[in-house]
């Protein structure tokens, strides 16, 4: 009987033992990886936002204001009415006499459109409200926002960027009915859940009774309001 001996490479043995030890340590201490996971997620969304912004606007900034419109929307009938001259909206009886439960200012700056939610029922306050339109958030509050109604799952965070205006309210049921119809051609027929990863990689879930108030004075740039229908 003959035996064949193999030379053992101790370098591979030590490397394997080291990798095994590191894997065992991280398995028992998973939080040690969290800073790296957070940084990877943040870099991914920074690159995604950069590529998306280059697709929609690769021209130099000129700060040219081109239009200010008023969007009035009935979330029950799905009827939308747009007034291109916001000053004329205060004198438009067809707007004042109808029940539009969602009103949004649409403003175009440098060929990029932004949206601000209106709270005033009296349209005569539109001009005053418009003066506060330029309170953009200093930082983007969310890395990812996903819509899920059990039928479809849709990532919606890229389309939310034009809505990041200080003191504006977003992601309530009325907003979502209009938003999903306009940007995704999707009618909300069931209860839904919004799954959010904020800029600090905190996980948040909202339903139809919750909404977000965007706030520049808070570190995370948003406030969650729950169990309140607006």
- Please describe the biggest sheet, giving its number of strands, its sense, and whether it closes into a barrel: 4 strands, antiparallel
**Which residue ranges are poorly predicted, with pLDDT under 50 across at least 5 consecutive positions?**
58-62
User: How many domains, in number, for the residues?
Assistant: 3
The main sheet orders its strands as 2-1-3-4
Q: Overview of this structure, please?
A:
By secondary structure, this protein is an alpha+beta fold. It has helices at 10-28, 34-56, 86-89, 93-96, 126-131, 157-160, 173-184; strands at 65-74, 79-83, 102-109, 112-118, 142-148, 153-155, 169-170, 193-198, 203-206, 211-214, 222-225. It contains 7 helices and 11 strands. The termini are far apart. A 4-stranded antiparallel sheet has the order 2-1-3-4. It has a 4-stranded antiparallel sheet with strand order 6-5-8-9, with helices on one face. Mean pLDDT is 77; it is low at 58-62.
């Amino acid at each position: 009987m003959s035996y064949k001996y193999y030379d053992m490479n101790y370098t591979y043995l030590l490397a394997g033992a080291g990798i095994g030890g590191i894997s065992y340590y991280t398995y028992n201490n998973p939080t040690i990886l969290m800073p790296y996971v957070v940084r990877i997620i943040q870099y991914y969304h920074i690159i995604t936002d950069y590529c998306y912004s280059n697709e929609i606007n690769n021209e130099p900034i000129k700060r040219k204001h081109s239009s200010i419109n008023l969007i009035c929307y009935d979330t029950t009938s799905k009827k939308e009415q747009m007034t291109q001259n916001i000053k004329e909206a205060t004198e438009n009886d067809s707007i004042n006499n109808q029940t539009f439960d969602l009103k949004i200012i649409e403003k175009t700056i440098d060929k990029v459109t932004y949206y601000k939610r209106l709270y005033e029922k009296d349209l005569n306050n539109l001009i005053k409200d418009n003066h506060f339109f330029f309170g953009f958030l200093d930082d983007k509050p969310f890395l990812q926002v996903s819509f899920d109604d059990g039928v479809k799952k849709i990532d919606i965070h890229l389309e939310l960027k034009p809505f990041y205006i200080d003191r504006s309210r977003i992601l309530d049921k009325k907003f979502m009915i209009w938003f999903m119809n306009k940007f995704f051609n999707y009618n909300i027929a069931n209860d839904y859940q919004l799954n959010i990863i904020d800029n600090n990689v905190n996980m948040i879930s909202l339903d139809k009774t919750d909404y977000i108030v965007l706030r520049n004075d808070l570190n995370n740039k948003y406030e969650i309001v729950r169990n309140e229908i607006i």
